[in-house]
């Protein structure tokens, strides 16, 4: 790291933007066990812009209240201390970041942050150790906030990192800056004196070893939410593998069915987040998820856990599934299969050779399921590859590369 680059980063770190005063006041009042709803209402009412944002949001689809809320006192009662705290943090975060000069693509930044926040909210009800969905939302919204700091300090270099493959970004950050965005984000949240649970979720959301063993349920949940957001959105900000996800799910007490239900409810939550981002003034991030045309798919693997996971992803994306054995036996309906995904680790070389000839002759769209850096079988060298965790956008690329 050059001296100039180091100086820029240290300058930004020394001059981190404070949270707005009203946010700090609200946090202090809410954290005081002797405080009442009236105390919170007084602080919130004293700041007209923030009170107005809270009222707008509580009456939006984000909360979906039956009757219009017209007073701050009613909003405080309806949302509770936790809800008000998290809204204040959400609004305060956006306001604080606006004070930093940053040329990063904010649509991309907020789109991913929104997706992780939505995934966290969706997953929270299913985890073994209870986590407030609103806290999961805030953790997701803030999890990559360190990237904003690094992009503000060294915009040209950080853009090069964003353009690199996802599984290289953390290492590149560490090599070029001596820290990665998780450490920078943790420093900011500690500077803001936010709860340790939030700063730890920010620090360890990419550290699968820590996130899959920690006692902090919020850290585990945020790591899971980051992966699900990548699957759902198609912009892979993480290099997590199928094994990583399964470790995290097991630690959180989640099944693949739980994950599927969370993914299914996530799209609705992402849509609701549009209200939040508009009212905060963060801008209108592109939050649409493109699923592409429905397909008839076959997953060829003898690993039941992998089959369950991959089929869950395909089902979430709106594709139909055809049984592997029925496909090989050319039973009725097999002729409608247009996409085949092959897990080579569970098949012998002879099986792979014969399977390659069989599928090439059929002319279906096909892909090899391998983790990055894994050797592709010789008979399938010309096929496109997918990780065991993939998005609809990546699956669409398979169709483009293998014309039936």
Keywords summarizing the entry:
single chain; 404 residues; mainly alpha; Hypothetical protein af1432; Rossmann fold; 3 domains; 5-stranded parallel sheet; 20 helices; 5 strands
Please, could you describe this protein's structure?
With 404 residues, the chain is mainly alpha-helical. It has 3 domains: 18-99, no CATH class; 101-289, Orthogonal Bundle (Hypothetical protein af1432); 296-401, Response regulator (Rossmann fold), CATH 3.40.50.2300. 61% of the residues lie in helices and 4% in strands. The chain contains 20 helices and 5 strands. The chain has a 5-stranded parallel beta sheet with strand order 2-1-3-4-5, with helices on one face. Helix 17 (304-316) links the parallel strand 1 (296-300) and strand 2. The N and C termini lie far apart (49 Å). The model has no long low-confidence stretch (mean pLDDT 88).
